Amino acid sequence: MILDTFVDAAQADLRLIPVSPVTPDTLDSKLGSAPEARAWAASHGFEGKPGQSLVMPGTGGGVERVLFGVPDEATLWDWAALVPTLPVSSPPAVFQIQEVDPDQATRAALGWALACYRFTRYKAAETDLPCCAWPEGADREAVTRQAEAVALARDMVNTPAEDMGPAELAGTIEGVAGRHGAQFTCIEGEDLLTQNYPCIHAVGRAAARAPRLADLTWGDEDAPKITLVGKGVVFDSGGLDLKPSAGMKLMKKDMGGSASALALAHAVMAAGLSVRLRLLVPCVENAVSGNAFRPLDVLNTRKGKTVEVGNTDAEGRLVLADALAEADSEGPDLILDFATLTGAARVALGTELPALFCNDNAWADAYLAAGRSVTDPLWRMPLHEPYRRFIDSPVADLNNIGTTGMGGAITAALFLREFISTDQAWAHVDTMGWTDSAQAGRPVGGDAFGVRAALAMLEERYGA
Ligand code: BES
Ligand code: MN
Ligand code: ZN
User: Fold this and answer.
1) What is the pLDDT of residue 12?
2) N or C: which end of the chain has fewer CB within 10 A?
3) Please, which residues have CB less than 5 A from ligand 3, an ion?
């Protein structure tokens, strides 16, 4: 588990190696008066700049303490850079971040935890990790639920489609439900038709593994309702409008929205927020077969609007349409969906900045502010009304692709909006779900963007 490198300082009778934050301004005083310490720092070129680490020896030859350069308002990501700089010994030494206030201790511990994430389902990790004692004052529960949430999402996305099919995805959600005493139901295969989820069925029916809709509910029935929706396309071949191989390669991550939504659901339940939580995840594989849905087919939707299929590769908005219509039918305080919906959002904002579309300015502002405060940023994009005409269809109420390829993230969001009532608060996160370029605490692979931000926003509103 991701928190395995943490030990309880109070319980273990251990010699702790202190790790102290330092800046170029505080370096002098942190080094103390001993000339050896100054010489050691100088000979290592250590100036206390962010990310620099200085392991200080004791007289007996062991590690005495560590100085680590962090900026004044250090984020969890600044702290994440500490882990790979520390020596790993046998028996393990135990480090403890010290001289930090409780907020900083919490951020430092979370950065440490996320830096210790590794995907070990198919082979053991090749190197050992350093151990740490919980920093004094850290909010262990907050760190634990966030680290578990992020690790859960990363593991889910990293797992290839063969081992993360519609059943396994739904099973993972059921497992989280069980852990929190939440209710779980799942509508499978042909039952999607009898229970009026025609788009989820149409997109998923060609796969050898039946489509389904996973549905988790938790919390006090009278509490304000929050409904999360996640795109759970376990593999996106593009359907009959098949993706070229380069574009298809990474499509095991097309359930990244559902991984993010489940991660958030886990954290909300672990935090015990005063909400009635619902999570809806259409779990489908967009595959090719004799019974695949086709370009220019016209699909019915749960809401009753008809959709002409301009491209079978715009499948995410189809499965979300049915799930969002169901979410909308209950009129929750907020509907929040996560989806690896468009390549266009990545062209607009790059891979690390999820696009936020929201029809409610108060919720949007709260989400963006939360993202800034927990260093999990999002960027708002517009539900630009004039572009609604691009998803008109000559034969149906809507087309699932725009008549222009431009502004594709916006036309996709406008498509989703068609399944939300005008007075219903709704936020849509178009995410990459994947880190392409590693940074401290963020290895290449599956990732959960905008999840800690959403948690912070909901804690602010519904926390104790
Ligand atoms: N899952 C993809 C979107 C995607 C691709 C997200 C790459 C992140 C990285 C989605 O189902 C898709 O194929 N979208 C198409 C829509 C188009 C056919 C209108 C796209 O973005 O090209
Ligand atoms: Mn697609
Ligand atoms: Zn997709």
Assistant:
1) 62
2) C
3) 233, 236, 254, 316
